[in-house]
């Protein structure tokens, strides 16, 4: 009996040693992977920093783009605009507004101030270079949130958009955050 018990125990101990060796190999492999990943992320971060510095130089000194493709400059401008959009989205977080909704409200406010009257959706679309369907959908959502009121135009062919006091208050509250986000270089 003892021999069977001893051989069973020895088998368990051998199994433990094998598992321990597998765990050590797994740990070593995981550490190598983590180090490799860390190096890759560091290289990527450094590369991104170099690219951002180059883009900043292009924006600040357009004449310094000699030998650089115009396409690369345009891509840099687009990437900068996308970073700005993310900053505005962050500033609007918690208000329930998307970037497009904020953009539409802010443009409507500017147009209303310029014309001293309500504006039609087509004017907003022209200002923002958005298609009529997008403007219509965003205005509907803003109306559901109680931020705009709209009614038919005198001709009956267009929707006139008014900002509600709730929208005016919200835009005033967001103004400082949006300006701060817009002035931050990232």
Summarize the structure.
The chain has helices at residues 2-60, 70-92, 99-115, 121-128, 132-144, 165-183, and strands spanning 119-120, 148-152, 159-163.
Instruction: Briefly note the structural class of the backbone.
Output: mainly alpha
Helix content: over 70%
Mind telling me which CATH architecture of the largest domain this is? Orthogonal Bundle
For this structure, what is the CATH homologous superfamily of the largest domain?
Winged helix-like DNA-binding domain superfamily/Winged helix DNA-binding domain
What is the count of structural domains?
2
Annotated CATH topology of the largest domain: Arc Repressor Mutant, subunit A
State the major sheet. 3 strands, antiparallel
Distance between the termini: 75 Å
Q: According to CATH, what is the class of the largest domain?
A: Mainly Alpha
Shape: elongated
């Amino acid at each position: 009996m003892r021999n069977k018990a001893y051989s069973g125990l020895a088998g368990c101990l051998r199994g433990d040693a094998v598992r321990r060796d597998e765990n050590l190999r797994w740990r070593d492999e995981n550490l190598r992977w983590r180090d490799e990943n860390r190096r890759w992320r560091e290289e990527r971060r450094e590369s991104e920093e170099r690219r951002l510095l180059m883009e900043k130089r292009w924006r600040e000194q357009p004449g310094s783009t000699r030998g650089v493709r115009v396409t690369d400059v345009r891509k840099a401008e687009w990437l900068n605009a996308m970073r700005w959009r993310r900053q505005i989205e962050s500033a609007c977080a918690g208000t329930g507004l998307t970037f497009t909704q904020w953009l539409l409200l802010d443009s409507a406010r500017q147009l209303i101030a310029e014309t001293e009257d309500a504006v039609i959706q087509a004017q907003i679309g022209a200002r923002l270079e958005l298609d009529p369907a997008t403007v219509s959908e965003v205005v509907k959502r803003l109306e559901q949130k109680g931020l705009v009121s709209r009614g038919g135009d005198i001709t009956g062919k267009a929707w006139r958009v008014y900002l509600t006091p709730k929208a005016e208050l919200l835009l005033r509250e967001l103004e400082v955050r949006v300006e701060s986000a817009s002035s931050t270089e990232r």
